[in-house]
Amino acid sequence: MAQAPRDENFIPTLLGVSSADYVTPVPVAVDPVTGALIVNLPGGSGITELNGLTASVQTFSAVSGTNVTLNIASSGSTHTFTVGWTGTLPISLGGTGQTTAAGAFNVLSPMTTLGDIIYGGTSGAGTRLAGNTTTTKQFLTQTGTGTASAAPVWGAITTGDLPSNVTLLGNTTTGTGSIVLATSPSLTTPNIGVATATSVNGLTLTSNATGFEIAGGTTSKTFVITNSLTFSGTDGTTMTFPSASDTVVGETATQTLTNKTLTSPTISTILNTGTLTLPTTTDTLVGRATTDTLTNKTLTKPTIDGSTGAFTTDTYASTITFDMSASNNHNVTLTGNATLALSNVSTGQIFTIKLIQDSTGSRTVTWFSTISWAGGTAPTLTTTANKADRFIFVCTGSGTYEGFIVGQNI
């Protein structure tokens, strides 16, 4: 192989031989800037064999790592080089060695333990802050310099951490001043101590060894109950008043009242029997369901033996039932033939029934059973249109009656 003359204005050229006969010279040049090998073959047939391989696609493996491939595809005088990659890129080559975003983050993250937090350390480098492992609740705190930040740390909230208009209340906090809570706050088993509030909404006063006191020195106090006051518990029946002690009367309790004045009381039931002392004399109460003898009494419009006054107008039906608990006097207009019946009749009850013919007339009835008519025969009804007959009956026993004519063709 010969060497061509060198000159700064020329590209260095190497001469080789053709692989066809290994005799024909072939120029081989190297670009002085890029160092790339320049091959110029006579006839422009291109590269037909490279590294002893003649396939149109040449593959070089293990160029950089086991997952890198270099493919050379030749077409005439055009050669295409393609770099391929499979698998994951390790951290040593600038990758993470992971196939998911979460996996890549965990590999690069400085966190190692449950509760760890990442913060920007020196020059912003990701730095691990270990979680709070104590049994005391902690908070992240950080105090800068005014121009630069600082690393965060765990710490407890102190009074100095709060704004000037906020007061931190402890279990034994004392002092003066006022504390304003949000509307309808929820206080769990609070110990109010000596309360000076003029209005407390929804306050529950629990048991205390000495009770509770509405203090006022020498001035009087008024305990105002807007809706209702309920006493409960083992001591819920007794209230101590300023000048004396007395027992609260329960709504459903059985208690004895001594020297009490009842204004317009409603007495629903009297359980015991005996006498009631009236303002001027002593007398016996008359029971609603008892049999009593009344002497020198004036009865205003009494109901005697189940009798009931007024008139009841009944409605026609094929069977007309007269309810004797509604009235002693019944009227009905017959618009057809009917069977008559009774209900709720008391022995000794006297009642009347008026049968009225309609504009057609000639209506007949079948009487209820066991009637002893005066004269021994049931009367014949007036059948003239728009005329009426009235009859009177006395109930002499269970299901037995005496019947009389009051008037006919009325």
Characterise this structure.
Mean pLDDT is 75; it is low at 60-64. The strands form 8 sheets. Strands 15-17-19-22-23-21 form a 6-stranded mixed beta sheet, with no helix packed on it. Helix content is 2%, strand content 27%. The chain has one helix at residues 101-108, and strands at residues 13-17, 25-30, 37-39, 57-61, 68-75, 78-85, 117-120, 126-129, 139-141, 153-155, 238-240, 245-247, 275-277, 282-284, 311-313, 319-323, 329-334, 338-343, 350-357, 365-366, 371-373, 388-397, 400-407. The protein is mostly beta strands and 410 residues long.
Beta-strand portion reads 25-35%
| DSSP E strands, number | 23
Q: Report strand order across the widest sheet.
A: 15-17-19-22-23-21
- Rounded average pLDDT: 75
How far apart are the first and last residues' alpha carbons, in Å?
163 Å
Overall morphology: elongated
Q: Label the structural class.
A: mainly beta
* Major β-sheet profile: 6 strands, mixed
Helix share, percent = under 10%
Our count of helices gives 1
Rounded to an integer in angstroms, the radius of gyration calculated over CA atoms is: 60 Å
Element order, helices and strands?
A: EEEEEEHEEEEEEEEEEEEEEEEE
Catalogue the unreliable spans.
60-64
